[in-house]
Amino acid sequence: MKRNKSLLSEQLSKQRRSMLLLGIISLALGAAIIGQAALMAEAVNRIFVMNAAPSSILALLGSLLAVMLARTLLAHSNGRIGLSMAALAKKTMRGELLRKLAGDSAAATARGGTGGTVSVMLDAVDESDGYFSQYLPRMVEAAIIPLIMLAAVFVWHYPSGLIMLVTAPFIPIFMVLVGLKTKRKSEEKYEELSRFSGTFLDSLQGLVTLKLYGRARRQEEEIKRSSLAFREATMGILRIAFTNTFMMELIVMLSIGLVSLELALQLVVFKTMSFHTAFFVLLLVPEFFSLLKNTGTAFHSGRTSMGAIRKVEQMLGAMDGDWQMAQGDSIQPDRADPGIPVPPVIQLNDVRFHYGQGSFELAVDRLLIEQGQKIAIVGRSGAGKTTLLHLIAGLLPSASGEVLLNGRPLREYKNNSWFDQMSYITQHPYIFSGTLADNIAIDTSRAVTRSDVEQAAAAAGLAELIGGLERGLDTGVGEGGRGLSGGEKQRLALARAFLNRPAIILFDEPTVGLDVRTERVLQESIGSLASGATMITVAHRLYTIKDADRIIYLENGTILGSGSHEELVERLPQYAQLVQLQRKGRAG
């Protein structure tokens, strides 16, 4: 899974045929430019120097028109090839990003901000267009056409060729110096754009919360600071671009001036050159330097695009890095899948996890969960309950130790084979924009019928809600579940699990914040769903898990004890104290 060569090298290796075609067309384009200059010089020489009748040069003018048309078509072809290369590169990069996002481990997917990811996938990939559509065609032309033109000038008048040979290198040297600066500025720009996009999207998603807590104004200032930083980064690139353009024009103007002066001296003062030769060279020189100047502009654009490509590569590299880091107990999709007899026996041996050096650490020496057991994980806030649940689910990689399923390490199972057997229902399940039926069926990989979806919805207690809707299961809901209450979102999440019929069900206390009636309905549905499956629940309210087969008590990332409710009340003071506190809270 490790990247052996850069993203740019990968893209260029896929464009070899197009690059070869660009080279062939550039050769023909160089010949057309020289042919156009030669025919035009001949036509002007015959009419204004030799006083030939216009009718005598009709064939010459026809040839000139044909060459000009061929030149236009060749230049257009180069542009079309560049656009095709850009379209293919953008399609490939977006496809690779999407495949990575879809195929990476859940732990890797959970990292990073949504806004930054969207910014790279849309803006950065689009910005890479300039490298393939402008930079590459211009670079191929610059590597071929100027050499052909220089050779022609040397043949006709070598002193002018020497001047061109001496002055021309100043343009690529300046291009390199400016290009290096542009690339750094471009990377800074996309860093700021990613930060701004992330801040803006996160603010939109949490706008209601920000307003409720009076933080909207402060967040507005944060967005303003982020946008100003992005503006400054963009203006920095524009300043470089304007400086680049000015210097290019200055170098080109001086170079053409030197050649023109030398030609004028040879033609007028020393009279050692014919008008035809002087005019031919004078026609080629601006073409020569104009081509180099345009190459410089394309070089600037290419350096900017390379900064964007670098951001894409960094995202792909970060995903690969997350993948490598998650090799402990997260699930690897490329190993042979031994299959999962269900429901599995889950075992944690010497598992350690921490979010960073010096931060909270979870340490589980040994934990065994038998088939079909109803397990509850309890403890005070911050004890590591959800972290333990994530380790069991394979959403987090352990720093050491192993999570075993039926005696085999969790990492040996394919992503799909594990997640197809598991349902994880959180306090705030995500509801996608679409119909109720679509949202229920999202948790299963098998083909399901309409009747299956209806039965799952009824089992989760959604029958009354759906019956009261004009379009029933075809009723649309907004992104994030807009239009649904908290209890209805939880029932929809349960309906997903009923449809999937998993072997293991993980709950992160889905009834928190619900009214008593809704909670009772959900508890009944959960009890029905858990029959024949292993159920692990993170419990914040102890009265909901009194009947669990085993309760695991966590404190500061360590399991202090496990057993039934009655056993823990008798022999674990911390648990007994937690029970008393919750009883007083309920009584109050």
Q: What features would you describe in this structure?
A:
With 588 residues, the chain is of the alpha/beta class. The protein has a domain at 7-321: ABC transporter transmembrane region fold. Helix content is 64%, strand content 11%. The protein has 20 helices and twelve strands. The chain has helices spanning 7-13, 16-49, 58-103, 106-110, 114-127, 129-156, 158-167, 170-205, 207-212, 216-269, 275-325, 385-393, 415-419, 436-440, 450-459, 463-467, 486-500, 516-530, 565-571, 573-587; strands spanning 346-354, 361-369, 374-379, 400-405, 408-409, 422-425, 434-435, 476-477, 504-508, 534-538, 550-555, 558-563. A six-stranded mixed sheet has the order 6-9-10-3-11-12, with helices on both faces. A four-stranded antiparallel sheet has the order 2-1-4-5, with helices on one face. Strand 9 (504-508), helix 18 and strand 10 (534-538) form a beta-alpha-beta unit. Helix 2 packs across helix 6 (129-156). The chain is elongated and about 115 Å long.
- The chain-level mean pLDDT equals 80
Q: What is the CATH architecture term of one domain? A: Up-down Bundle
Largest sheet: 6 strands, mixed
General shape: elongated
- Work out the radius of gyration: 35 Å
Named CATH topology of one domain: ABC transporter transmembrane region fold
Cα distance spanning the termini: 57 Å
GO cellular component, one term: plasma membrane
Organism: Paenibacillus pinisoli
Membrane topology: Multi-pass membrane protein
Protein name: Thiol reductant ABC exporter subunit CydD
